[in-house]
Design a protein that fits this description.
Split barrel-like; single chain; alpha+beta; 9 helices; 2 domains
């Protein structure tokens, strides 16, 4: 292993910030504790070492801003500075991919996932199946009739809501895949993962993608 000198570490840090801003942002986000109400305002690599890179992160909430530092580890460590660009290219897809656990850890995403599952089951039962099911629960049937007029109307509402969600989420997923490929410049697999997760729950995951697209757009404009 050829140790990266201090002077070379600073030079590489500037190159990394300029050439791989989106990846650096994702590195910072994955290694920085962000308090509620705060968001990342800016990031910059301050030094590149064989085992990782030091990142300066500015967190802001309104006019209040705090500066902190994080460290992203390379696995395995760089054998020399010449490996950095290839390593960052290899890491780009991984860093800019959505995390499937968001479907569970994001409360809104989980709620939408469960709700869409219920709508799917109701659509599977069909209007007649829903009507027959409510016959077994008179009190619930009375409540539904008070809200929707009849249980058949409720069945039509469930089916219509399901297909509306399918169309809306499919439209969002197509947009997500397109911009993942063209703006984030990730491969087919991570772009498809963005599309699948957005198709499942829509906005909560699309919001995460929009954040990355905004970073990529602003960095392109600043060049």
């Amino acid at each position: 292993m050829i140790e990266i000198s201090d002077d070379e570490a600073k030079k590489l840090a500037k190159e990394l910030t300029n050439e791989h801003m989106l990846a650096v942002y994702c590195m910072a986000k994955s290694t920085t504790k962000i308090d509620s109400g705060f968001g990342i305002s800016s990031v910059a690599v301050t030094a590149v070492k064989n085992d990782g890179c030091e990142i300066r992160v500015t967190l802001c909430s309104g006019d209040l801003c705090n500066m902190t530092r994080s460290f992203y580890k390379f696995h395995p460590p760089l054998q020399s500075a010449d490996e950095l660009n290839k390593r960052m290219s290899d890491l780009h897809d991984e860093l800019c991919s959505p995390n499937p656990s968001w479907l569970i850890t994001n409360p809104l995403a989980l709620l939408i996932l469960v709700f869409c599952g219920i709508l799917a089951y109701g659509t599977y039962l069909d209007v007649d199946g829903i009507t027959d099911a409510f016959i077994q629960a008179p009190q619930l049937e009375k409540f539904i009739n008070a809200l929707f007029g009849t249980t058949r109307n409720f069945g039509y509402f469930v089916s219509g809501s399901f297909w509306f969600a399918i169309v809306a989420h499919a439209f969002e997923a197509i947009i997500a895949v397109y911009y993942s490929l063209t703006s984030l410049k990730v491969g087919v697999v991570p772009a498809s993962l963005w599309g699948i997760m957005i198709f499942l729950v829509g906005y909560p995951i699309f919001k995460e993608l929009k954040e990355l697209l905004s970073i990529a757009h602003n960095h392109t404009k600043s060049k």
